[in-house]
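Dear Dr. V.,

Thank you for agreeing to look over these. As mentioned in my earlier message, I'm a first-year student in the group and I'm still getting used to reading structure tokens, so any feedback on how I've presented them would be very welcome. I ran two proteins. I've put each sequence directly above its structure. The first is here:
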Amino acid sequence: MPYQIGDLVFTGQATSQTLSGNIADVMVGDKYIYVAYQNLNTVYVYNKNPDGTIGSYVRSRNWVSNDSYITYICASGNSVPYGYAVFTENGQDYIVGWSSSHSLLFMWTIRQSDQAVVGRVQYNAPTSMAGYGRGGWDGGQYVWFWNRNDYGLYKWDLNNKTEAMVRTCTIAGSGYSLDSSYTGSGLYVAGDKAYWGSGSNETDGLLGCFDVNTGALVGSKMTYSNLPSFGVTAINGAAGCIQPNPTQPSIAYYFTFGTTLKTLFLTTLDVANTTIPTMAHGNDIEIQFDITSDLRGNSTSATFRALINGTELNSFAPLLPLPVTNNSVTVPISLMNIGANTLTLELKDNYGGINRKVFTITVTNDQPSIVTSVSSATTHKENVVFEATVTDEPTDLMTYRVLLNDVPLDDWTVSGYNSPLVVRRSFRSDQLNMGANEVKIEVKDNFKTNTTIVSGQSTITKLNKKPVVDVVMKGNTLYMDFNDPDGDQVRFRVLLNGKQVLPESGYSIPFPSPTSIMYTLPKKEVITNQSNTVVVEVVDSAGDTDMWASTGALGYSGLMFKDTESNFYTTDFGTLLKYLNVGVLYAREQSGIYEITVENTLGYPVKNIKLTPIQGDLDPVSEKVEISRSNAPFSPESELLYPDSYDTGDTLKFYVRLTMNDDAVGGGNFKIKVTGNAL
């Protein structure tokens, strides 16, 4: 059975070799493998076989004698390493280490002709390195260090060596004792996980795995007791460490502080000929790939399963001989989120080892695009049609609503509409305000969790000249002139003291403009001789209004009798206010002559005013009521007729007396009646 720690899956042993001297570190170069014997005072150089195993012996080097600064990255002659790593650029090997006495990295070229370290250069580091740290190359862009000064995990960018080192996390548990003597290299980072073991002479664990971003220990440390599960016998009990090969991840090196080195196999299944879209939107996607194995691997068959965001798309099928070609999986769009989605291919070999290949599929969502227009940018009373053309990705179902001056005309549509969506809405002029009106459409594409509202708008400018009302008030009669500069029909209403009196409700029927109307306020609604408020409102066909208002005292409306002191004898309803008192008369007596004024308060002109005495309680022969146009001479007439026109406010005077003869015996009340013809 394979053994897995983090993402590394161990499946067996490739070789077991006996080397010269006690092994402290195994560092992989381009053509050579460098084996540190106790420390960097003695480094054995071996040829590297194509499969990554150690080949023939070349020579030994004392890197301390090449440059004493080596002692800053690994103490001379003892078991205290600080942190260092071998890496390769363009076929040239280098060693870089973090100084224990400086806030510096020191880097040397490993000369190809004799493997001496030469050409030291230095780069800034955030602090110095503590003893028993670790360094290692990831086989690509970065050299990594674990510094026991602060337990921080750092990476150094080989493409930007002068840039500051980046601290990715603090390793939990102070490294869980994986900080022992002799071994200063072997830190290996792959994906989001960092791996290293204890010192080669220590028993604290062959390999540990830590999360690069959080520093947490992933699972448990690998120990010698796990070796038999994949067919490997421990070299020296619990002691030793394992160092993965950064350039050939199908193998790792297992050794103790002795001469034995075992090369271990790891599962190295890979994918090839992939058709995996990096972008998606509304449709399910098909992925295709082949499963292959690294040439240095020992897997013979494989199967797979796929997961999207952790949800299984298929289960493992029976194993098939490698390579396993023409694999395909459907990834439902319903299982993906807007943004980055993680597609995981788990590749399982005949040992049961599982390699995970992770891909990112980004689900995109373009917002709808809206183009709006109106049939006319201006209007007076004509209807205007608003039109919006909305385009979006074909699979999206859009909903929308239309707003006028930010007020929704309807709620969001229930049904969804595909692109292109064309929305038309007609507006009457009376729906629009004077001036600029904004017609807006708001659209949502409702794709997954997207709630963004996109809007488009057009402006309709309503052009209208307001109607005009002109009122002249004569008495209680209104002379109303209505006009509209645009020639619109007009409607009106009249309110007296807040109560509508014309028409009974709403506005009048439409009248052509201009128009004039005379209207006398109803007597029963007038508060006589007190303050009254009269309001006349007019509205045109475009919905614009004008208003006339007046507040003041209103008197009686009619042909009113007044005395010489302008006091009324009756109200306009005929209610008695005062008598014309002629006193006591006896037979054969004649009263004095009394002047009475008639005033037109109707509010409109009248003619043919006729005054007629009504005897009432008095005898028409012996107690005669006489009226005259003048008092000197007083010329009695049975009635008085005034054919002229009398406008509002005009007055006329006449005179009254009573004449008694011998038969006068009674007394009582009499009346005078006035009539006239309205013009």
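The second protein is here, in the same arrangement:
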Amino acid sequence: MDDRTILDYLIENKSKMTKKHQAICDYLLENHSEISMMSVKEFAQEVGVGTTTVLRFTQELGYSSFFDLKKQFFEIHKTYASKWSRIQSSFDVDQDENSDKLIEDIWSENISVLKRTLTPQLLDSVHVAVDLLVESKHIHLAGSRPYKAMAMYMEALLTEFEPRVHQLSMDIDNILDRLILLNHEDVIVVIAFSPYSNRMIDVAEIAHKNGIPVILITDELSNPISQYAKIIMKVDTSTKHFTVISLVTLIEAIVVEYGSRLAPQSGDNVETLADLLKEKSYLTGVDLNLNSKKFKG
């Protein structure tokens, strides 16, 4: 069983498990980076179940032993550690290397990342996520460092035609205060990539407990926030250089789909804004009504 399959299984089937197996599942999702040095007895004690229950759970996942299960999560954890060095490694290039080739390599890799990201599962998740956004009373956005900028970008696109959007990322210190004012008619979009912020995990947990749907955009299904998310959209990343190309593309796809669902009102809103900008001569030399046509079909 590969890591994606085991994570899919844990996230999608936890609610169908027995209470003891749910406890094991929760512990694995929240603490998988810590189990590599544990014995089956130590793990069972941490979870609060018997060793027999752990071994039965392990076998149901298709592993012959607890050791094999630990190896699987150890491989997942290794991918997290490597991501810390990606930004720095992006600049560690041979000074004699042809700059055109470097640009071409980055361009090619980004195209590959987009192709790997676009899966049938992602397409289904986007449609379901947009359904939830359309039905919600308010849309709240939250992104952890350095993806706060991506939450702000999504806000900038949506607020062109949708006034029900609120940014939580800019007030991290008081984010929990704001969170308790929301209700089940609202929705929170959380953008969280590894390494994960404890504050964002708390936000998702509290939202889940209060019945507020959480839409998670992430790079790993093993993200601790996954257990609290109603919808998970996983994007691929590059091992060669730091890039947010798949995240930006997903955000733009969500916004266009959302705007199309609200047509013709969304298009009218954008067109009104375009007319106002032209009237005030804030922008010149461009056809500002082109954006409104995206939502008018």
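From my reading of the second output: The beta strands are 139-143, 165-167, 187-191, 214-218, 231-234. The chain is about 55% helix and 5% strand. Does that match how you would interpret it?

Kind regards,
E.
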